[in-house]
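[Meeting: bench + compute handoff]

Bench side (C.D.) handed over the final construct sequence. Compute side (W.E.) agreed to return the predicted structure before the next meeting so the bench team could plan truncations. Sequence as handed over:
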Amino acid sequence: MQITQDHVVAFHFTLTNSTGDVIDSSRGQLPFLYLHGHDNLIAGLEQALEGHRKGDQFEVVVPPELAYGAVDPDLIQTLPRSMLPADVALEVGMSLQADTDGGPMPVQVTAVTDDTITVDGNHHLAGQTLHFAIEVRNVRPASTEEIAQGYPDP
């Protein structure tokens, strides 16, 4: 059975960056499960899975525009440290929630000084070319309920 619209797919993956560093992997865990054709994966990976079958093993390179997009410099801001309560211990790498005109937005702290804090609202993989090693473990038609809810039942 081929991976097409409204099929539930179980696959193992190893995600690496352009230098070969492992970013994430499902190896040693249950396979990743998703409903194909419902925007549950980054576009480039879903496109690459289309048409494959159980047992297929392949590699795919996904450019930023088909993954998490380019880095948007407007989402990186340096703010006065005084905007946050003095008792908040800020560290590079920690996540915060910023209140924006568009509503709450997760940001990551990228720099801290005595007077300023720099935050980045880009996805942490924005701007990166992603390399996936894929092994398709199972493909089956989705149930009516799974299609209606937009994701597979475990």
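W.E. noted at the follow-up: The chain has a mean pLDDT of 95. C.D. will use this when planning the next construct.
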